[in-house]
Amino acid sequence: MNPSSLIGQRALVAGGSRGIGFGIALGLARAGAQVAVCARGQQGLDQAAAQCADEGLALHTSRCDLADAAQLAAWVEQAAQALGGIDILVNNASGFGGGDSEAGWEASLQVDLMAAVRASRAALPWLRRSPAGCILNVSSINGLVPTPRTLAYSTAKAAVNYYTGALATELAPERIRVNALAPGSIEFPGGRWAERREQDPALYQRIRASIPFGDFGQVDAVAEAALFLCSPAARWITGQVLAVDGGQSLPG
Predict the structure, then answer these.
(1) Which position among 153, 162, 163, 204 bears the catalytic label?
(2) Is residue 52 part of a domain?
(3) Is residue 129 assigned to a domain?
């Protein structure tokens, strides 16, 4: 990817203080975009801003509970005003609602699905003013194939995939692109697979062995795919869900 391919673009990353979200935000900034991120925790936001500053990059940060519709709408408006508009919206946040509990369903539906819906709705007036508006939803391969242990999360991600295609169809006449990434098992410091390596090594090794490429994925691989889908190189791509998983979702 051309390191200056997004100069002049204004990007919002919902859930962008750590892991995949921060990897995408950092990649967008390195490619020349102005970037705003939000997250619930101030400490993570401060660390993200400091890491960008170490590279001479600016990052606009705000605290926001993405399950709160009013907070989310206010963040999109505030970030758009700070950056002077919106060209790219990345919906990355997850409530990680595993299992079949009421709390798991609430977290998954409110954060994984409805936060993407609400952020997209709030950003659309700004995206319509952009000559190259695009939305990127971060889903999961769990939304492609029924997966045990994560019923609520997987169902919400399947809904995100459907929403991606439906919104892309609706916005295609306006040339606003909508795509999704479906990462596989990605390991990063402080993430769930890093925790399970210590807490549930049997599960960690079983999942690792199931990945055809032989290891867990890294954040950079997802961020690079995100940059492609947000860039002019993907100008003729919309309504797609791209698996980034080292073959993990392949049959067999």
Answers:
(1) 153
(2) yes
(3) yes
